[in-house]
Amino acid sequence: MDLTLYEQADNIIAVIKKSSAYKNMIDSLARFESEANLKEKVNNFNQSKRMYESVSIYGKHHPDYQCASKSLVEAKANLFAEPAYESYLKSLKEINEELRVFSSEIEEALRECLVTKDQVCRKG
User: Fold this and answer.
1) 12-70, pLDDT tens digit by residue?
2) CA 2 – CA 85 distance, rounded (Å)
3) Quick one: residue 49, left, alpha or beta (phi over 0 = left, psi -120 to 50 = alpha)?
């Protein structure tokens, strides 16, 4: 079995882990775990989201819908106002963009070598 591909994948993972976006994301997550204020905001958001999801399946006429909706909006606003959360989202977006570009490049490379019933590999 040729392990070259796996070694290259490990190298790509190492490059991503060395990036500032990845380090910022890990630092932000550590802050969420260590700071009680942030942890409480995340827990409030998750609890409000679960409550909203359990009520919203019954529609807007459920007696608790207004309360659940308001609670979710407030919890989301409190969480999204945190600089640590904004930093986390920004870093996550950067990493996802890097991975999207990388995936597109792999897709393009594979497309060039795609063999169909009417065509042969252009690279072979």
Assistant:
1) 889 889 999 999 989 888 888 888 899 999 999 999 999 999 999 998 899 999 999 99
2) 42
3) alpha
The pTM of the full predicted model, rounded to 2 decimals, is: 0.69
The domain made up of 4-112 is a member of CATH 3.40.50.10610: no
Extents of the domains making up the chain: 4-112
Q: What pLDDT does residue 122 have?
A: 56
Q: What are the Cα distances from residue 28, in Å, to 2, 60, 92?
A: 38, 36, 10
Residue type, 37: N
Distance separating alpha carbons of residues 25 and 32, to the nearest angstrom: 11
Residues 6+ apart with CB under 8 A from 73: none
Q: What share of the chain is helix, strand, coil (3-state, %, to 5)?
A: 80, 0, 20
